[in-house]
Amino acid sequence: MYKEISPTELDSLPSGSYSLIDIRDRVSFDYGHIPGSVNIPQNELSAGNIPKDRLAVICCKSGIISRDTAEALSDQGIDAANLSGGYVEWLRLNIENRNITADVELSIRKKFKKSIWCRFTKAINEYKLVTPGDRIAVCISGGKDSMLMAKLFQELKRHDKFPFEVKFLVMDPGYSPENRRLIEENAASMSIPVEIFESDIFESVFNIEKNPCYICARMRRGYLYSRAKALGCNKIALGHHFDDVIETILMGMLYGGQVQTMMPKLHSTNFEGMELIRPLYLVREADIKHWRDYNGLHFLQCACKFTENCSSCDQNGQTDSKRLEVKHLIAELKKVNPQVEKNIFRSVENVNLSTVIAYKQHGETHHFLDTYDEL
Fold it and tell me: Domain segments of the chain: what residues?
């Protein structure tokens, strides 16, 4: 019979008496995991690759999938235990009543000044993302990107070069109580004064079979615009970074048959007078991860309560994420050409319309034959 072990009990076990096996997919594991754990995705796990001389503690996102896995291993004669509450519960216990504000802020000013702070301010200046008199809703999902963005805006306010205001906005679209508490505690540990408002988006998209995540994202943006405007804001800030930009470029080409990019700022088409800005536009994801790990921070990759089997405990090793495929493609290309990321980014800054067969502008298609004989 398998055992149930809490994160607190796990900490009291003698070193070397157990193996902690995280059965989430590799992307989720890389995003954040318990120190000392070993990643063996569920579809690769078998009694043959588990040490027999110690207790095998199985971990997933919230202890649901790992419970069944631990039971199955126990039936095969393995001394197995389930980490009750999973990574989420371990995470909650490790950030509860923790205050690391000073260390996090110092790291931005010193350790990550060049790689993060300077790229953040460069994007703001180069694309005119923040102007005097702005009232910006910094939208926080609870992940590493938006939490870093919030701290960067706090630092920008301290410089006080021109007057602008910020609101730190969290929308709860139906988080589980555990996930919401993690977001609240992470924000508190870094002294980010979040304002949380609720919606029922998760319930609305629960029964949608085709592209539920895309529809959810669109609905969430609409709610954020609406709430921000009600607070008197004229802009919302989202945490998309440099890697998101270049992945979007390739996704458009490879899967959409078009050349486009994720813009650093956009006018809202549905909320008059509102803009969307992306202040992390020039910040690399690797540097965000480095900042996270340097400060010993832990965030959920996805707080959606309906993704136990897709982003946290992948059962079949498959993914429908085109973005993940493109991320892997870029990583392979980078092995041959270290400049490939910069070149992808620059490609949409150096479009030569004289060598383009057709392009669209303001909804109108222009073809090279339209002016070919005028040359």
Answer: 3-94, 99-305
Q: How do beta strands 135-139 and 55-59 pair? A: unpaired
Alpha helices in the chain (DSSP H): 7-12, 26-31, 65-75, 86-95, 101-109, 118-126, 144-159, 177-189, 201-205, 212-230, 242-256, 285-294, 322-336, 340-347, 369-372
Q: Enter the CATH code of domain 99-305.
A: 3.40.50.620
CA atoms within 13 A on the CB side of 11: 7
Tens of pLDDT, residues 221-245: 888 999 999 999 999 999 999 999 9
pLDDT of 305:
52
The answer regarding whether domain 3-94 maps to CATH 1.10.760.10 reads no
**What residues have CB less than 8 Å from 111, skipping those under 6 apart?**
291, 294
Long-range contacts of 46-54 (CB under 8 A, 24+ apart): 47/73, 47/76, 47/77, 47/78, 50/19, 50/21, 50/78, 50/80, 51/19, 52/78, 52/79, 54/16, 54/17, 54/18, 54/19, 54/79
Q: What secondary structure, in 3-state letters, does 56-102 show? A: EEEECCCCCHHHHHHHHHHHCCCCEEEECCHHHHHHHHHHCCCCCHH
Do 52 and 70 form a contact (C-beta atoms < 8 A)? no
